[in-house]
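G., the chain you wanted modeled:
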Amino acid sequence: MAVRSFWQDIRYGLRVLGKNSGFTLIAVLTLALGIGANTAIFSILHQILLRSLPVHNPQELVLLKSPGPKTGHVWSDGDDSEIFSYPLYKGISRNTSVFNGVIARYQFAASFSDHGQTDRASGELVSGNYFETLGVRPALGRVLSPDDDQTPGAHPVIVLSYGYWTQHFGADPSILNRAVLVNNTEMTIVGVAQSGFTGVQVGQTPDLFVPLMMKAQMTPLRNGLDDWNDHWLAVLARLKSGVSRKQAEAGIAGEYRSLMEQQIAHVKNIDAKGREGYLNKKIALYDGSQGRTIIQRDSGGAIMALFAMVALVLLIACTNVANLLLAQGAARQREFTIRTAMGATRFRIIRQLIVESLLCAAAGGTFGLVLGIWLMNLLTRAVVNEAGIQGLVARVNTSILGFALGITLLSGLLFGLIPAWRVARATLTQTLKDQATNISAGPGHVRFRKFLVAGQVAFTLLLLIGASLFMRTLWNLRSQNLGIATDNLISFSVQPQLNGYKAERNVALLDQIRLRLAAVPGVRSAGSSEIALLTGTDMGTNITVEGRASVDKEDDHVNLDAVSANYFSTMQIPLLSGRELRESDAATSPKVAIINETMAKKYFANRNPLGLHFALGGGKVTPDIEVVGVVKDIQEDHVRAPHRPYFYLPYSQAGGLFAMTFYVRTQQDPLRVANDLRAAVKEQDANLPIYDLKTVSRVVDEDLFAERMVAGLSAMFGGLAAILAALGIYGVLAYLVLQRTREIGIRMALGARTADVRGLVYREVGIMIAAGAVVGLPAAYGLAHYIESMLFGVKAGYWPIYLISLGIICAVALAACYVPSRRATRIDPIVALRYE
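Predicted structure as tokens:
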């Protein structure tokens, strides 16, 4: 009986929605926009912030960190505390009392050659127990084992990722035991990792896995296996069953202090303070179920801000539909009164209205999912191509479907429950009283609709102010003086040492490539730099400055880059004094360097730095590098990064070069000469892969991708919210004019002017705007303080933003009330006096 009654409600609800096709279409489209946008943003949020590693029992994994002092070489992608030396890792891995396995990994660039074709790939050096500890199985052949990781250079074997196997080899099973060249070393393919496993760090998708013992062959410029002061490994571990993170930290504390005592023996010139700092270092264990969370830390704030904004859009959409339902419910009040008189209970009426709301929400959710998939494809492609976050896919899985279903049901209940309750609670006497004058509902009904519109105004203000702050941030970053001219400038990178080039041959090849590039028709000049600009990469060292007393080691740390002759003129970096680097500044020539303005002010204060000297490192060193020039500061690693001390060496005097990025300034659109640049490199070495060929303008865009995405999407959400608010205001005002037709007619019959009638309408909208602003402006100020760390060049209390946003709301409201106010002034008093 109950099931049949429920199906009757569904059939009746479908007839009602079909009969009111205009209402249904508006409600479904409104919900589809909100649900679709939420689904698309959630797909990115889920893959980056929520998804666990696709390994066995990921909740047992922990990430190891050791905050505190480090000396020597430190490789890091954002958090030095997560990076360990190989001897330190081996010491930790011997602890079997709290760990079931300790793994280490290091990402490296790979030059992959097969059948005479050389491509660039992403490699990962991993410990022998990597796959075993994670519980990752082979899809083909075998994975690496501890036996592959015992003797340096003894096991040249690799395991391919499933994605690389399918894309590069067409899922060919015959690749097992095939010999290939990886970084000029012959390696044997022994297996393919299971499908879906892309490493232990979101955003990085290694193509091949290599034993740690092959470090010297894979990174020919630096071995580091025996160096306590070479920090390059990220370390994770699997806890023993029943052991908590706190217990594990306590269980390893004594052993770790012993390891620190061993490390101190390999630190030069350590004083009592430094010794105490090392001995006080502790191991801290963090949740490792998501692996290394570098991307989560860097982009989590932006993603959560977008998700909060798109949730507000859905809330505004639900408020709008609730307003429509209230109007429709008021129009159907006589129907419900009759049903009540015939014995229908309040619960049955509420259930009928909830069923209609859920049907409407289901239609909106269906169209919203289609829209969400389309938006998901656009967003995923943009994040992968421009932000460089690899491994994201635009795929609808159970999590996405579950989220879409959940917000669809929640939306249906959110916008349907309150209108249903208000309609059903009306008494028969009150309904008949309200209907006696042909008014669709009483004053309480209208007040509640005004309250909903005021809420829409408050939410819209939140979105508009947030969007304006992010747009202002993007504008400020775009207006930043980068210190270089980006027009008609193109760049690309090479890594010759991965193809077997030693130091002297490497420098000679780079010279030849640069001179050949400069001779390409349409090229004005060419220069090169070891560190690619605006990619977040940097390199640093301690220095000893002639005539300057050292304050402390951290104060003497500066960043450096190895560049070519003509680099500064090609980049159009202003030379403040001295000269640029020359072709004659060769490996056998006296050592020279150019410093930036910040370094000159910090290390050569009140002195002319030209002709003075400094040395790399500290202690008893002789300053032997002469400062020959000073240049303006430029944005080196990020557009929004502060200026830091930098010096620039001739790359011929820099020793081993891990890479080289060429910058070519052209007389026309640089993309027109891209193929000529490729050909110029091929002339020097046909097997040398070039990568990241792009204009510098695009490099800047990619560096600002997060800001561009947040500003663009927040502006879109703010605009959508303003449109929805306009629809809500229009609906309420149109209803008010209808409700007060008789009153307006009486006023006009008594001599009220058109302006007076318009004033009635404008007064109503003014009250709703004021009520929304009273709530929305303080809430927006609090939100702005919360996101202030994401802003640049603008503070949370920047009042013009608030005035502009309030002005937009007022303009939208005036536009929305134009038609209702015009309709009110055209009411015929004679007709209005007879209106019942």
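The two ends are 42 Å apart (CA to CA).

Shout if anything looks off.
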